[in-house]
Amino acid sequence: MSTNRTPRRRAGLALAAALTAVAAFTAPVSQAAPATVQKPSPGAPGLGDPMFPLDGNGGYAIDRYYLDFDWQAPKTPFGATTTIKAHATQALSRFNLDFGGNTLHSVTVNGAPATTSRSGDELTVTPKSPLAKGSSFTVKVAYTADPTQTRHRDDAIEDYGWIPTPDGTVVYPQPNGARLIFPGSDHPSQRAPITFRITTPGDRTAVANGRLVSRTERPDGRVRWTYDSEQPLSTQLVQLAVGKFTVVESEGPGGLPLRDVVPDALVEPTAAYRSLTPDHLQWLQERLGPYPFDRYGILVGDTDLGVALETQTLSLVPKADLLGTKVDAERNMVHELTHQWFGDSVALKSWSDLWVSEGHARFYDRLYSEQHGGENFEALMKAAYKAHDQWRRDYGAPAEPTEPNLFKRMRYDGSALVLYALREQVGDATFQKIERAWVSGFKGRTAGTQDFIDLASKVAGQDLEGFLRPWLYGAKTPPMPGHPDWVVDPAT
């Protein structure tokens, strides 16, 4: 730029400023246009998930749950209150909560009684006054909780909801059974911290996700237990249990607090396998990086259900898993621990992304098991490859499940095979970089299949879209890199 033009430009600017000032004094005064106020409208009754369209809710976001339970005795209904702190993401004339079963008593919004209606699992709440976009509000729902209320699925989940034990209860919220426990936004992408306040008889212990904040004995002999989840969590990862428990505290790698919650009669019989958790943590941290939460532990389930769950920071492991063989026990323990990285810390964007969570848990539980007396990992992958076309036909491709087949074998062994194929394609060193980038880059967030494809491509320095999409969505199983001799059986 030529410097000899600067004075002329300055002069022009000065003249323009003077003219503007004169215009400001001589122009008629006009009022600013009023800001557009959004007309209140109903929040969406669901998020439109392909598996469960009405799960979750639109129009607001939950900032925190407060769950108050006055637990009485096994299989006995009790009083409960859920208080929800939220903020409106649109101007709301009404909104929905996911709420199944349980006897509803009252609902207030910002302290004023609200009008309600129920249809299936949808509780529609109409506040006394509409809620402005961006405003904070408080919903309080009083109801009777029934600790015998369960539902059933014909896949790996089996029964879910409230699961009775001989002297109390545990919770199986996956996939969408949290609504049987408390009202909320019951979808894995919807995360919020939770404060639990559980009152029990004096001879029972209550436990929940996160940290024990206080234990308060009341004059009537009952005890109030308060827990803070510490980090936000999806509703499918909630755990609260009541029973005659012994709480066993220890330390993991780097001084990580460990807390096992064990029925009194099972403390000694399960001690040997439970003591392996520090080794499992160390093994996984070497591959995935730091454990993503502030504490961990195992809740031993005194039930006949053979289902373990990755409930956040307190995995539920059935007693049968911890009373059987060491190989089987470790495989299941490592599986649920792996979920703390995949599915818990990095939550699912939609149920179609379940393959990311279950595939990784199965990949690492089988890899660990091979190194500790279990079956050969490659042989298991070869067998999964052989059956993959049949699984695609019966259960849907890994990232394209149907609702009845959501928790069938394709989401486990079949999805672990996708990760095996990726490792064969990019090499072990690059694969490990992808894994670490995923759990660190999306820590505390939600992510989905396309996010995984994009991140893998970025880390590998090559476009993996054309490689991964046929594996995740195709009707036919692609060739396995590095194994031209592997053959897929035809689907029948």
TrEMBL record:
PROSITE patterns: TAT (PS51318)
Essential cofactor(s): Zn(2+)
Any Pfam family hit: Peptidase_M1
One GO-annotated biological process of the protein: proteolysis
Taxonomy of the source species: Bacteria, Bacillati, Actinomycetota, Actinomycetes, Kitasatosporales
EC number(s) recorded for this UniProt protein: 3.4.11.2
Source species, domain of life: Bacteria
Protein's recorded name: Aminopeptidase N
All copies of domain Peptidase M1 membrane alanine aminopeptidase, residue ranges: 281-471
Entry similarity comment: Belongs to the peptidase M1 family.
Catalytic function, reaction form: Release of an N-terminal amino acid, Xaa-|-Yaa- from a peptide, amide or arylamide. Xaa is preferably Ala, but may be most amino acids including Pro (slow action). When a terminal hydrophobic residue is followed by a prolyl residue, the two may be released as an intact Xaa-Pro dipeptide
